[in-house]
Amino acid sequence: MKKEKELTIHFMPYSEIENEDATGRIKKILSLILENKIIIIQGRLKAEEESRLIGDTMALIGHIQGFKGVELAVVSSKEKMNFFQKVKHNVAKALVGEQDAVTIVGPANLVKDIKRNPQKLELLLRNK
Amino acid sequence: MMGIIKNLTKKFFSLFGKKREIKLGFYGPPNAGKTSLANKICQDWLGEDIGTVSKIPHETRNVQFKEKVIIEKGNKKIELKLIDTPGIATKIDFEDFLKFGMKRTDAQKRAKEATQGIIESIKWLDDIDAVIVVLDSSLNPYSQVNITIIGNLVARKIPVLIVANKIDLRKSDIKKVQAAFPEYDVIGISARTGENIEGFYESLFKLIKKTR
Predict the structure, then answer these.
(1) Which residues of B lie inside 8 Å of A (Cβ-Cβ)?
(2) What CA–CA distances, in Å, run from B75 to A105, B71, B184, B203?
(3) DSSP string, B110-139
């Protein structure tokens, strides 16, 4: 009998991480990644949080069996903005956080690659 | 607090015209040519290399330094401490190294060292004056690692120069790199052949000026 493959995509609204500090956000993301879930986050992490996510991911490789890291991509509307739109965007970002972006994080043993070019995302999954 | 003290120290030295050694970091994804470029600079001005290069990714797994690298152009002179960092990646799979004919134990060791190297690279972001982000111009520049590195440098107000390396390759596309990072200076070079290295040194002087 053919075994069915399961793929879970977890949607994380911005409100779920809004009140978390950097440690809490990264902990939340990595715990879902370790459950082999692909996460779609409304918004994006701060630059320093993204680098911390990479650092914490590296610290886990070799300590958790089969864990090879993550694939990560962000799509944001910011790149297509003119000067005034960017100012407006930055004011909104300061008030409510960067919510008009989408972040995708997936475990590298499941997601082979995320191609971003630049407004389109393609997820290449591994054949198991 | 440390950041304020660091900035005040910088301003003090620049006010009194004292020349200080600029800590210049080489950042980027694995196999983009960071060590090749750092070697080219070291060869041009010191006559020696900073590290070894290889086709196998993650050849540089420890941060490498070269101090007192003095670069001259006309009557201008800059003194640099070169900091060549391991390539930053979001995943490391030892099985990727097996494809290069490595033994399993060696591949596992390389993977372990590479993860530690990435952690070290990220830590060094806090102690650098200017950064050369080295990208392989024959590859898609829209990778999140590239965006994360540059985003971190901007957040820390560290001046950045993007080097689109490997322009000697047929698939090289500098315009694509420029389109991906329109707000930054991008210079195309080949660290391997030395193509446009003079243009690079000109851009380097402009970059260093931003630190003063």
Answers:
(1) 88-93, 111-112, 115-116, 118-119, 122, 125, 140, 142-145, 147-149, 151-152, 154-155, 180
(2) 50, 11, 27, 16
(3) HHHHHHHHHHHHHHHGGG-SEEEEEEETTS
H/E run at residue A57: helix A47-60
- Rounded (to 5) percent helix, strand, coil in chain A: 40, 30, 30
Q: Which amino acid is present at B14?
A: S
Closest CA to B149 of B58, B46, B26: B26
Please tell me the pTM assigned to this model.
0.87
- Tens-place pLDDT, residues A6-20: 789 999 998 898 889
| Assigned token pair, A61 | 């490789």
Task: Flag whether pLDDT at B1 surpasses 70.
Answer: no
